[in-house]
Design a protein that fits this description.
Layout: E1 3-6, H1 17-25, E2 28-30, H2 39-48, E3 53-55, E4 58-60, H3 68-86, E5 90-93, E6 108-112, H4 127-138, E7 142-145, H5 148-154, E8 161-163
Parallel strand pairs: 1-2, 1-5, 2-4, 5-6, 6-7, 7-8
Antiparallel strand pairs: 3-4
Length: 174
């Protein structure tokens, strides 16, 4: 089974559930780089990321961020090319905005790590983004949540919901 894991935010220096899932399953995980230091850096990093690349189980495809409606369609187009190229069977998606789940050519499991179902201007969650997230959850074959509270909220959108809590290895902190 070839699985592609799409992180919430790509940061290879931080241990996160998507990368850990990918390691445990020998799956692929999607990576992109965006330098937000200045507008010039942002544009240059956007141009540099506009390529297909594969290093071991890390894969990169062209990713656009703006304008959101067009970027989502273009990103999904490139994702479907990658799916075909790597013969991906299923995707575990923890990213809320980059792709249109309905148009992805393989089943998608939505990994919901944060409550993105309510307006929160501090993190850019407006009604359009929330509606997109809800639609993606509805078009997923299942949803993985980090808490029972979040799972209960999502069950009205998708009845195939499980909880896999984030954990701490207490032995490392003694």
């Amino acid at each position: 089974l070839n699985i592609l894991f799409i992180p919430h935010v790509p940061n290879l220096k931080v241990v996160n559930r998507v990368y850990e899932f990918a390691k445990q399953t020998n799956g692929y995980f999607l990576y992109w780089h965006m330098n937000n230091a200045t507008l010039k850096d942002k544009i240059l990093s956007q141009i540099k990321s506009f390529r297909f690349k594969k290093y071991n189980n890390i894969v990169q495809i062209p990713i656009l961020f703006k304008p959101e409606r067009i970027a989502t369609l273009i990103n999904t187009y490139f994702l479907n090319i990658l799916i075909k190229k790597l013969r991906i069977d299923v995707i575990v998606n923890a990213n809320a905005l980059l792709f249109d789940v309905e148009k992805i050519k393989v089943p998608v499991i939505y990994d919901l790590v944060d409550d993105h179902l309510e307006i929160n201007p501090d993190i850019g969650l407006n009604i359009n983004r929330i509606n997109k997230i809800k639609k993606d959850i509805q078009n997923s074959v299942g949803v993985v949540c980090v808490t029972e509270f979040l799972a209960d909220k999502v069950k009205s959108l998708n009845n195939n919901v499980i909880t896999i809590e984030n954990g701490i290895d207490l032995e490392k902190f003694k």
